[in-house]
Each structure stands twice: as structure tokens, then as C-alpha cells.
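Sequence in, structure out.
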Amino acid sequence: MELSSTASRTSWLAAALVAVFLAVNFAESRVQSPTLDEPWHVAAGLSYFVTHEIYRANPQHPPLLKELSALSLMAAGIRWPHNKQADYLVHGDDPARVFESEWPIGNALIRDDGPDRVMFWARLPLILIAASLAALLYVWGRQILGPLAAVGAIFVYVLDPTILAHSHLVTTDVGLAAFTVLSMFALWNYMSDPSWRRLVFCGLALGGALTAKFSGVFLLPVVGLLLLAGLRWRPNPNSGSGPAFLKPRVSSAPLPDWEAAAAGARSIKRGTAAVEPRRKDLCPCGSGKKYKNCHALQESIQERHLGRNVLLVCGVFTAICLVAFLVIETTYFFPGDLLMYVKCARTVNADHRSDYVAYLAGQLSPRFMSYFAIAYLLKEPIASIILAGIGLVALLKSHSIPVAAKLFLLVPPAALFVPVTLLADDIGIRYIMPVLPFVYLLAGLGLATLVNAARKVRWAPYAAAVLCGWLVLAAVGVYPDHLSYFNEAACLLDKPGEIGLDGGTRCGPAWLDDSNVEWGGGLKQLRLWLGRHAAGRTPTLATFTSFPPEAYGIHYQRLEGYELAVEPTPGLYVVSAHLVARIPAFPRASDWLRRIQPIAIVGHSLYVYDIPPTASPGLLN
């Protein structure tokens, strides 16, 4: 009765947290202007329903999430535009020219149909997917860790600034995270109680991950490894019924003494040494039988069944992949080329400059192997990191959590984090977004561990309360600019005085650039600031966005990023945090962006400088 009551209370709490998450997402989405990549994805998604060709527009990303966004737009009455650029994208034969037209088409579509209206409907499916991920974390968390840890996981998730920043954007990162967790949830339930229906569900979920983002392919070996591990550690080996093909087992023969005698069945003592028993020796398990008729026979049965079950696992894995392939073909509108998915995957990063250098802690380099680890340690709330650490220790030490659950919580994030570290461009924590839900589950376990330790450790519940309050502060203190969030550690070493209610966000550009600090979503906030504090003045803008500021009525002069490398002339400057971070790191570039105190930081991401007419290079120093 007590367990049922706890589950009921946590279910209601989880539902309330999802509702809050939805409310915050919708509110923040209304504040944020289109980010750098969103016009691109919006245009591509709508084009697919006109051309029925995925390879023509934005092939570097699979189509599923863009198609969902486009369906929402079409349901709201927003259609593919008819103009010279849009017609060329549909019928043109020059791939380079088609690629160059995607952003202008998206920008024009958003501007002409109303930015607020277009972005609301375009973002709606992504917000719902993010909320579904929150609910899924609770449902799956209850299965593998219990209701208290599950509600702890969803609590950490809905308050995480990284999730709140990206969950309402028309991009692929949170969508991939959602389908990654859905794939693991489906596989867990299939292995717990196999059936044909659950097998198909596994394939559909995996297909969703593969068509959300190309890095979903790293789930293929994860699924195979977990299926093989299921031969030894199944979540629930005694449940369910169905065809033997669906139920790989270690052995169908009863082996009652196998586990009990495992430590001694393979060796007997002769003199002072332990050696392998001979077939005619008495079996050391104590059955009174000769070894050849006891455990030697059972070992032979074990080996024979293992080989058969490995083949069955291969069959199950193949069946899951075939269903996933059907999902791919459907989202790609059944192209004549069966390798279209592979063809599109080869275009990944086709638009990235080969000579682009990453930025980390004031340094520039083609790649930093520690980039994503440092991004996690700086961009995630410290309270979340502490809870995840407690949860990891509790998971590894626990004797009550099944080995299968430990594998499902640890193998997928490791298998996703390593290739991203080795292969992905160092431009944003968003690339490890599929890893984070597993970290939240560990954090939920950490929170549950503290709560359950109240009887033995008096300070444990107080520590849990402090960490929960810290998480709330991290989410509220930087609202509605969660994308720019950095935790207190970003300022702790050099500028502890800059730590505020928004954590160490002010020090973020000293560590990271790109979508870690700014992604072009602050134009609406900039318009309001200029109207209140700089009416009648024309600012010089150096922003990190593809969407035209004039769509929001901002009159400005444009400044290219490289022009910030020299001392400024008098005037009002608005500079993206991305450029504030990056430009001073180049050799022989001026450091005025760091040296001069901005008069305001709009939306935690747009630095405003007012250079007076009397200023000179000497005075600026």
C-alpha cells in the first residue's frame, strides 16, 4: 500500500513538472527570435512535401523532425512560397545554388508570414517531443530505478538550462535525445517480455533516432551489444510468452546447481594446487556424479545453446534494423535509391569550413579532445553534476539494481559520447544532448539516494533540498536566456565577483563560443532594449544570426566579424557573445571586446558598447 501511494504521488508530481516544462517552453519560445539554423530547417522541411526529394535541400540532416515541423506549419495554413529562389530550389540543377537559397527562402517565409506565427507552429512539434521525453524519463525511470528516482530524473530534466534552451528550437538535438531514450525504453521492455509487437516498436523507435540525426547510427552497435548482453543478464528472464525466436535465453535446460556450484565446479584440489577436474573425477559440486555426467555435461549444453542464441540475437537485431529501414524509407518518401540515407549521410558537415578552428578557454585549435567534457562541466548546473555523481556511485555499488539496468544506463551514453568527442565539430554542448537524459536518470538516482539515507545520515535530506533549490535557481536566474547559461565554476577561478543569480553566465565567453553562448535568438530583446535606451540611434551590429534584424524593425549598420579585430571608431556597437569570445583569441587581434566594459548585455548574449566621440586608442587602453 505504501509503495502504491508513493508511486501515485510521484506520478502526479511528474505530470505537474511536465506541465511546468511546457509552459516555460512556450513562454521562452515567444521571446526568442529565429536562431541561426532554424530558417534553414523550416525551408527544407516544407520543400520536402513539394519536391518529395530529401537530397535536394538540407541533406546533411535526416528529414523526420523537419517534416514534423513542416506538417505543423501546413496545418496552420503556411505553405511553400512561390518566388524565383523557391522555384529554383524545387527545379534547379545546381546543388551549390540550391544550398545558397535555403536560408533566404526560410528567412523570407518567416518574415512574410509573420515571425511569431511561423515560429510558434514550426516549434510546436519539437516542444511536444521534448515534453514527451520528460514523461518517458519518468516511465522508464520507474521501471529500472523506482518511482522516487524517476521523479528526481524528470525534476533535473525540466530545470536543466541546456534542455530549456534547445527544446523549443527547430533543430535536431533534443529530438535525437528523445528517440535515443525511446529506443532504449523499447529495447528494455522487449528484453523484459519479448513479443512481436515490442520487436516492431524497437524498430520504429530506432528508425526515429536514425531519421532524427545521422549520429543516431551510433545506436546500432549499442542495440546489438545490449541484445547480446541479454543472453546473460535479462531484465526479467522469467516473464512473458511467445515464439522462441523472440526469446533468446541462456539455456532452456534446467540447471539447478549451476549458480551455486559456479565457484568450485571447474576445479578440485590435488595436493596444494587447484586444477581442472578430469571427466572421471567426482564432480566438486557434491552431487556424487562423475564430472563428465554432471557439470561437464551442463557446460556442453550451455555452449550449444549459447551458439544458437547468438544466432537468434542476430535474427532479432536484423528484424529491428529492417523495421528501422522501413521508417527511413518512409521519411525519405521511398526514393528509388535504397542507399539514399547513406548518400545523404556523406554530406554531413558539407557546409562547414575545413579551416575552421574551435575555441576553448581563450585558445584556438582544429580540435580539443576535452571540449565536450569541459562543456558539460561548465554548462550543466553544478547541483545536477553532483547528483549525477552520487547516482553513479550508488548505481555501481547497488546489489538490488539488476546488471541489465546498469548496462542500459551506462553503455548508451558512453557509446554516444566517445564518437562525438572524436568526430563532431567543437561548436556546442548540443552535440552531446543524447547523452544527457541518461545523466538525468543517474541524477534522479542520486536524489533518491539522499532522500532514502535520511534515517542513517541526518544531513542527507538537507543536502537534497539545497541541491534541488540550486537547480531551481539555475533555471529561474537566467530565464529566458537558458542557451547562454554557465554554472558558477566558469567565474570561480578568475572573476568570482561576476557570479550572480544566473550562475557564471557572464564569464561564459571566456570559455566557449558558438551555440554555447549565443545563437541569434536575441533580436526581439534587442529591439526592446534599443527602443528604451537608444531611441534615434543607429547601432552597428555584428550578430550571429541568419535572420534579418530589419524583420523586427531594427535599423542598423552591419559589421563583419573580422572588422572587430581592430580598435573601434566612435559609435554604438552590438556584438554577439560568440564574437566577443572568439575574435580576441586570434593572433594580433585587438582585445577591445574584452577590455572595454559593455554598457549592457541584452539577453545574456548581445554585448552593447558605446564608444564616445572623444575616445582614442590610447584612452581605450
